[in-house]
Task: structure prediction
Amino acid sequence: MTLPITTLALIGTGMLGREIARGLIASGALPPERLILANTSGTPPHGLPCRTTTPAQAAAEADALLLCVPPAAAPRLGITTAKPVLSTMAGVTLARLTELTGSTRVIRAMSSPAAGDGLAFSPFTAAPGATADDRALASALFSALGTTAELPSEAQINVFTAITGPVPGFVAFFAEAVQRYAEAEGIAPETALAATRQLFLAAGQMMASGPAPAEHVQEMVDYAGTTAAGLEALRASPVAELIAQGLAAATARARTIG
Result:
């Protein structure tokens, strides 16, 4: 599915911007000649066959803008436009986006570098000034990068900054704990790493289309095998509460980082 616009200015070519560009091109949503990249240096990022210019020039030429710069760089964008402006900047509110760009047609989203492989979950929320066409653009754009959902309130974006933005941060932390346990039991580090990677690869694929995570857990508990013993111990521990504390800390930071 191609995007319902002629050209998109993607402003910010760091890790997230590059992966979003790669995902849009790979999915066929935008051919390279319809994607204008922009950064402060005007230097093309390696491996992307798109024209690269300055943010102001890209904003002047494109039909819509997607801001992927770090929140600290937002005040230096130097953009004034009435066009639709989509943003993946953590913590930068809809009101602040209007202040920075002059546009009332602003949409705030959260995505992740998994967008390059079409695996991101990129929810978004729109300001009152955004039109139905603007929201349709956001839905099409973020669907090309994985899956998306329009949220009923802006406050919820901060939660997704914690649970979908940091791929694979929180999952990698749990995987690290599994690997360290195996190594402590005498397993060679390279074998422990290979097993851990396969565990999380298989788990991710199974949960992507099968039952919900809670149902997977209950299935294993009901089977009453070795995994059930481990899961019962985890259920009896404070680990779920500690994970929630970590996510809450990330969400709280999202409210102030912008």
Remarks:
- The chain has two domains: 8-152, 169-256.
- The chain has a mean pLDDT of 93.
